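Chain A, query sequence.
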Amino acid sequence: MKNIIPKTLITLANNLPCPLYVTGGNVRNFLAGLSSSDFDISAPLTPEIFTEYAINSGFIVNCIYKNTLTVKISDINNQSYEFSSFRTEQYERGHTPSTASFTNNIEEDALRRDFKCNAVYYDIKADVFVDPLNGINDIENKIISTVTNPDKVFCNDGLRLMRLCRFCGELEFTPDENTLLSAKKFSKQIEYISNERIFTELKLILTADTKYLKKDGHYNALKLLYKIGVLDKIIPELTIGNNISQRSDFHKYDVLEHSFKAVKYAMPNIRLAALLHDIGKPACYLKNKSFRGHDIIGAEIAQTVLKRLKASKNEIKEITNLISLHMYDLDSKTKTSKIKLFIAKNYDSYFDLINLKQADFSACKDNLSICPTIVKWEKVRNQMIENNTPFTFKDLNIRGGDLLMLGFNNINIKIALEKLLIECVIEPKFNKKELLINRAKEIKNE
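Chain A, predicted structure.
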């Protein structure tokens, strides 16, 4: 492993009066044959003593966290490192330890971590692995087990429930029986975690396959999140779709599994929309025994869910918009003229929408062929391109400044541009500045 350790870190290790260890994910990944660029380091030194040696070895100290006994440093190459003193931790509720106490015992330090695969140490100076809890065995067998009694591990920090699922997806590991049973038993501990942290971890789970290119890692992680009962706690509006069947001529799976499959087939950037795209179906079915209108109801429910999870306003807007539009032209019978206007009106989200439609289509019966609606829409869009049809305001041969010159105010400029865009979509040859100026004058006088 020494070949991947930065020379500056080797110099620091040689200058210390005790071993300096690389810990956590970097060591785990090396032993598992995976890449990693982050270096977490640890030693039986207090932050104050470590800081002195780091400065004398040419490092910049960026921040010292006395409560958690951690120090952030960087070297002359701007490589960042997080140092942690060997420590024990005490928890109350939530994710962050209430207190941390220094120790010089490596096994005690290992026991305050989450999983054995993350509790293997590499001694830089001695060039040896130190494995106080037999974590290397877990890595070799691709399993995840907790550093101590799993009940204690999950009670101390409920976010570890989601980290378990994420690691299983990212690494293609499997939880051992005791860890899995305990995760199910203590799934309620997620209720003590802030919604912001839950949302961050959920997005990492939904892209778990991209971390180390493990096929279907995101799908497997999501299924595990449901299996241990955590998804029920964080998005009950979604999981109520379990065992709600759908028309067998269109669907192979119930509402919930269809949503999971949509995530499986979706591009990474729209997977949250894929997860929530049918969240309105259970509510519609339980009320009317029908799924009609689930796109609109679903957008409203998704907005409530996303607000609860502390998603950004932009995320909420984009996701709810995709959900509200995902049923449009489902039967591919909408007239071409209307499709043209629809594409232009929604061009900013068009490619995300067709990706969502493809994921939805594939999720019905694991059909990987191109969704017929997309074939139709893309044919229409290519025709629009050939005819020099404008898709957005930027494609119009008139600008807001031109409308200001004609006496439009800021509010009416957008209204005028929208009208001009629609007319140019209907008749692309109309997109000439002189014609648009004259038409704008007419609009102003209307």
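The chain has a mean pLDDT of 95. The first strand starts at residue 21 and ends at 23.
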